[in-house]
């Protein structure tokens, strides 16, 4: 992909905090019109990267372009194209919901008329329009999250950075967030979203970037992951060795899961049923046997299996 075709293009990003190397040469591309998910274990470096992309933290080294602007030479221009929703953010409690958004519309230089229309449009979009005259401090955590998202969108950014946007949201709000993020990507935005809720990311993201110990460990298309996980069956037995022996004797493909159990396959449903019958007949004490649900979770666990 050409650099300027992507909303974010980062190469060789490093950042240390004293002796801790939080990022060790990380590469990332976030295309326009797609949702890219950033996944990785606690401490992998995701927040550090997002802070750097949001121009709130300087990298030690690396080349980063946001909306085509080099962050070293054109941070202001990049910032004007960037919407940033941190995982926790302060709100100005004494302001009303509408005043809060208006404040950011003014800060981004929207003219008062345009700003007023934009505030109403965004409040409608994040389902807070009935709360417009309420002071921000009365909002629930989930409502504050939605206000934070509206704030990130005020200036119609081309590039969106969302750090754990679903935390604190109830199930309905999560579905709404998912639909909203998808619609922003459909309108052309480059969206980068960091979260630990893999099953949810799977429904929202087109691509995944796995970060491990400050570097990119893999990039995956969601559709490819889904196809890979199709036909896998997760089996748990009271004693694992007889199960492993039975699978080896049949040369059936399987992969051990870090969380316990084996992923067997790919197998069709009739093949899986036949195998289960044989295993039980041979005395393997299987207590759970089901299709693998989360494609991303399965790949993520396999990728991080060797972690010490
Ligand atoms: N301001 C700081 N001072 C010192 N060390 C820091 C600082 N910020 C981050 N680190 C360290 O850098 C590493 C990466 O942290 P970071 O917060 O980026 O990880 P993360 O992937 O966002 O983790 P989590 O999923 O837990 O939020 C960690 O080892 C962390 O302790």
From TrEMBL:
<keyword id="KW-0813">Transport</keyword>
<keyword id="KW-0067">ATP-binding</keyword>
<comment type="similarity">
    <text>Belongs to the ABC transporter superfamily.</text>
</comment>
<dbReference type="Pfam" id="PF00005">
    <property type="entry name" value="ABC_tran"/>
</dbReference>
<protein>
    <submittedName>
        <fullName>ABC transporter ATP-binding protein</fullName>
    </submittedName>
</protein>
<keyword id="KW-0547">Nucleotide-binding</keyword>
<dbReference type="InterPro" id="IPR027417">
    <property type="entry name" value="P-loop_NTPase"/>
</dbReference>
<dbReference type="InterPro" id="IPR003593">
    <property type="entry name" value="AAA+_ATPase"/>
</dbReference>
<dbReference type="InterPro" id="IPR003439">
    <property type="entry name" value="ABC_transporter-like_ATP-bd"/>
</dbReference>
<feature type="domain" description="ABC transporter">
    <location>
        <begin position="8"/>
        <end position="238"/>
    </location>
</feature>
<dbReference type="GO" id="GO:0005524">
    <property type="term" value="F:ATP binding"/>
</dbReference>
């Amino acid at each position: 992909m050409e650099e300027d075709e992507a909303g974010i293009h980062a190469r060789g990003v490093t950042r240390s905090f004293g002796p801790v190397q939080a990022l060790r040469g990380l590469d990332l591309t976030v295309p326009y019109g797609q949702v890219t998910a950033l996944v990785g274990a606690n401490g992998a470096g995701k927040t550090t990267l997002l802070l750097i992309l949001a121009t709130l933290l300087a990298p030690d080294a690396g080349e980063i372009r946001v909306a085509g602007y080099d962050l070293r030479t054109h941070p202001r221009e990049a910032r004007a194209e960037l919407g940033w929703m941190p995982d926790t953010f302060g709100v100005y409690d004494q302001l009303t919901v509408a005043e809060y958004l208006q404040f950011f519309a003014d800060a981004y230089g929207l003219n008062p008329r345009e700003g007023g229309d934009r505030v109403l449009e965004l409040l409608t979009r994040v389902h807070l329009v009935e709360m417009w005259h309420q002071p921000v401090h009365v909002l629930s955590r989930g409502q504050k999250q939605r206000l934070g998202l509206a704030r990130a969108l005020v200036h119609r950014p081309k590039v969106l950075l969302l750090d754990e946007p679903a935390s604190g949201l109830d199930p309905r709000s999560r579905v709404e967030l998912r639909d909203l993020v998808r619609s922003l990507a459909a309108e052309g935005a480059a969206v980068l979203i960091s979260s630990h809720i893999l099953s949810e990311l799977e429904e929202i993201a087109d691509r995944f970037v796995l970060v491990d110990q400050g570097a990119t460990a893999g990039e995956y298309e969601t559709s490819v992951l889904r196809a890979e996980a199709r036909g896998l069956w997760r089996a748990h037995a009271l004693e694992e060795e007889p199960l492993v022996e039975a699978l080896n004797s049949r040369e059936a493909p399987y992969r051990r899961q870090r969380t316990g159990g084996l992923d067997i396959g790919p197998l069709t449903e009739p093949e899986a049923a036949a195998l289960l019958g044989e295993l039980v007949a041979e005395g393997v004490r299987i207590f759970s046997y089901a299709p693998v649900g989360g494609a991303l979770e399965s790949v993520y666990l396999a990728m991080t299996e060797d972690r010490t």
